[in-house]
Amino acid sequence: MGILILRVVLVIVSMTLGAHLRAPGLKPLDLVGPLIGLGVAAAIIGLEYLFRSRNLGALLGGLAGLMVGGAAAAVVAALLPLEAIAFVEPVAVRGFIFLLLGYTGLVIGAAHGERFSISGLRSAWSDTGPQQNYKILDTSVIIDGRIADVCETGFLDGVLVAPQFVLRELQYIADSQDALKRNRGRKGLEILQRIKKRRDVKVVISEVDFPDVRDVDMKLIELAKQLSGKIMTNDFNLNKVADLRGVQVLNINLLANSLKPVVLPGESMKVFILKEGKEPNQGVGYLDDGTMVVVDNAKRHIGRTVDIAVTSVLQTTAGKMFFGRSDSLDEPAAVGDRSRRAGL
Length: 344
Prior knowledge:
This protein is of the alpha/beta class and about 350 residues long. It folds into three domains: about 1-115, no CATH class; about 130-255, 5'-nuclease (Rossmann fold); about 270-335, CATH 2.40.50.140. Helices cover about 50% and strands about 15% of the residues.
């Protein structure tokens, strides 16, 4: 209601000022003047709606570009001998120069105005270097939680960026009626809070948004382009789309797979046989990182930890899978032979 009153006052004042306009050497403009004032008020209100839909960074960038373009136009107009051109009014030429260079600076500044965010200005004046190493977190990698463990190891450097639109998505999930989604959303918020509390990790909440882009994944890609950063995710589809758009991706799943133990055929390891395998007499166990180990002739060892010799390694889309055989297969038979020899 208050904004509506301000607009009415703006229209009244503008039409009153327009009524006082006078043509050179003529009487006041009776009807044309108020109409001109009404048009000016409409233009101002139109600019209000236009600026409301734009990001603050774009507005700052457009203003800076307009100032640079105006300064360049003043230099060009001062250097050109406009008074020597008889068939052209110097005022008109200067006006066209200011219009051309000013509009060009305005468009270029608005297009690259996302860099005028508060975090961008802060990093520009920081002593950490000419360019920050931004890593942009998506919703899935926050909910996954392993990013907090990676931060605790100290392997991550640079700045972790949590976009505001990702936080809104987390909040939406945390407020879901579905209990599973609600728990996932709350877990993501707790993980992000845990990361922010660490002193050795810098987390920035980015207010940059892209109103014309609805999909969160595409917003992440656009933000990564603006910041020249990398997206941290475990979303396979986002990984592929970002690669196609020329944006670097740090996939937590690929990192986890690359850190799984490297075992060559012939090496030995200890495995707890958890269950029966698909093939006869097979046993299945898992390493601490979740890697599956299939052991031949190990059905009798279910519920026990045995020494095995690795026979082969299979790389799958889900990770590595080890195949092996138990080195203690003959243990029960050997115990029976010793018992018979002892007369038991």
